[in-house]
Amino acid sequence: MENLIEITELTKKYEGKTVLENVSFDIPSGRIVGLLGPNGAGKTTIIKILAGVINDYKGKVLINHEPPGIYTKSIVSYLPDKTYFSNWMKVSDTINLFDDFYEDFDRAKAMKLLKRLNIDEKLKITKLSKGIYEKLQLVIVMSRKARVYILDEPLGGVDPASRDVILDTILTNYSEDSSVILSTQLIQDVERVFDKVIMIKDKEIFINEDVDTLRLKYGKSVDEIFREVFRCS
């Protein structure tokens, strides 16, 4: 199986402080990967490097055999952990923006997902609850025909009843030749969709395993393993 993402000896420092040290892993196509670790572990740094937002690092990062840049931005669909739409926009304006900006944006799919998630395209962004806003961002990101989908904390403000709908949206809207990287703290709610888990501890990769292998090895759920590794209460 072809690797969509290859990271080799990635090291990143902020103002002299090392946040990632010699991190290496591969992600093949057709996988949903959980990128896990406590706050400050470096998950968002990895995500921003893959998204082309951060470019001053040491090591090798390849997406579809190319370093992050103009080409990779055309095949990576990125959902950041911060809101990024302007307050003047309506839901329909966000659809128009992505339709204009990305050649691979599937407007019909976006409209279908809006309807499924009960999001009114006439509503102003400022009138949306945090949960609805996050659903909207996910709709926009998953409506691109990308090779890599990178989702940074996509479920933080979403009520438990909506999480399954969102996970199903992710599961049914990526293809076998693409992959999803999902960073989250809500492991128990999300782990059912993971094919593979990468856990970061002390600036390094601590676990990099297929989920089935991991559960067999530890005899526990991914959430239980995470809590044990990081001594979460």
Automatic annotation (TrEMBL):
Stored SMART domains: AAA
Keyword terms, alphabetized: ATP-binding, Hydrolase, Nucleotide-binding, Transport
Pfam families, A to Z: ABC_tran
Molecular functions per Gene Ontology: ATP binding; ATP hydrolysis activity
UniProt superkingdom: Bacteria
Record-annotated ABC transporter domain positions: 5-227
Top EC class of this enzyme: hydrolase
Residues making up the signal peptide according to the UniProt record: none
EC annotation from Swiss-Prot or TrEMBL: 3.6.3.25
Keyword Nucleotide-binding: yes
CDD domains the UniProt entry points to: ABC_DR_subfamily_A
Keyword Membrane: no
Family matches, as PANTHER family: ABC TRANSPORTER ATP-BINDING PROTEIN ALBC-RELATED
Official protein name in the record: SkfA peptide export ATP-binding protein SkfE
